[in-house]
Amino acid sequence: MDKMFKQLAKSIRVYIAKESIIDPFEKNVSRLNLNPISIKAIVSTVSPEKLNWKFYGMKVQEAKELIIKKNDLNLIRLSHKIEIDGIYFLSYRENVSNFSIFSLDDKYVRITLWRIE
Hints:
Elements lengths: L1 H7 L1 E14 L4 E6 L3 E9 L2 H7 L5 E10 L3 H6 E6 L2 E3 L10 E4 L4 E9 L1
Antiparallel strand pairs: 1-2, 1-3, 1-5, 3-4, 4-8, 5-6, 7-8
């Protein structure tokens, strides 16, 4: 798996945001995007048939599967948005209930990201 990761991995950008509460009664939150952090990941496109099975009832425009190192999992969980080839995908903080994370072995994790129309 290490050899495959070194050969196929490409760089993706993870944006982390700093939140500040403007009005606690109205629950308005302002987000300030920090500089992106680049991490290595193996990126693959998910087929439309697999999308219908995974996300039943949602209109998903595009989905990607990432294989990342377990060390980078905390960055994905703290992210505000994730950029792959100039396209922004929903992050863990935006979609905690629909975010799928699977452990492959001791070093790697598989994550499914998508963007909604």
